[in-house]
Design brief:
It contains nine helices and six strands, in the order E-H-H-H-H-H-E-H-E-H-E-H-E-E-H. Helix 6 links the parallel strand 2 and strand 3. It is 42% helix and 10% strand. It is an alpha/beta fold.
């Protein structure tokens, strides 16, 4: 995405005025890291994560996704113990695997140039999201980071995106939400936001019914067009 890509606008209709990013699988390739961490956790039991369970837990708050994992694989440890062990494996492989998803940095620079407010709304904890964003020096580029630990009902319920709108003092309909998962898209749609699905390999088989746009990557020019930039 070049500078010229950032300035080609169509102002013939009302456009969203704020962009809200999901985090895992949308900004970062952390879904790959979670998969590797889960497989390391399950390996001593002779088990391996399956596409079916990955689809169920994607976009869910950590306590919900861990409970689903526990039930599916008949794990005997508590949810708290399983989550602690998952986090340990996650940290062990993080540095070797962590990377931005295609187009994120280019899109972010376009939004900064166009002075469009930006937020992050994730099912992961706010502390986790803040830590990941800060390690690349982008923390100050977001007006708000909302985590799944700060709301009662996680995605696919609309609560998280409604809370973002409330905290930013904007109408939900003025948000353009970027999501990679079916659960995340359902949450954004239910909140009344302009919803853009950005699927990747880890989202194969998921449904994106009723989204406003399906983008190839975050560098898809249709995203900028929807914003009028």
């Amino acid at each position: 995405m070049t500078d010229s890509d950032c300035t080609d606008s169509d102002n013939s209709r009302t456009k969203p005025t704020t962009v809200v990013f999901d985090l895992d699988g949308l900004i970062f390739n952390t879904e790959e890291i979670f998969l590797e961490a889960t497989n390391q956790l399950l390996a001593p039991l002779g088990k391996k994560q399956t596409p079916e369970i990955v689809a169920q837990i994607m976009g869910q708050p950590s306590n919900v996704s861990t409970q689903i994992l526990k039930d599916y694989h008949s794990l005997t440890d508590s949810v708290t113990e399983i989550r602690k062990e998952l986090d340990r494996h996650f940290d062990l492989v993080l540095d070797a695997i962590l990377a931005f998803m295609p187009g994120f940095e280019e899109l972010l620079q376009c939004l900064i140039q166009a002075d469009i407010p930006r937020a992050i709304c994730t099912s992961s904890t706010a502390g986790y999201a803040t830590k990941l964003i800060d390690r690349f020096g982008y923390l100050d580029e977001f007006q708000l980071i909302l985590g799944g630990d700060q709301i009662e009902n996680g995605k696919p319920a609309p609560d998280a995106y409604l809370k973002v709108a409330e905290l930013l003092k904007i109408a939900p309909a003025t948000m353009l939400v970027l999501e990679d998962s079916e659960n995340g898209c359902r949450a954004a749609i239910a909140a009344g936001a302009f919803t853009v699905a950005v699927p990747a390999k880890h989202n194969m088989g998921q449904s994106y019914d009723n989204v406003d746009l399906i983008a190839d990557t975050l560098s898809d020019p249709a995203i900028l067009s929807a914003l009028g930039i």
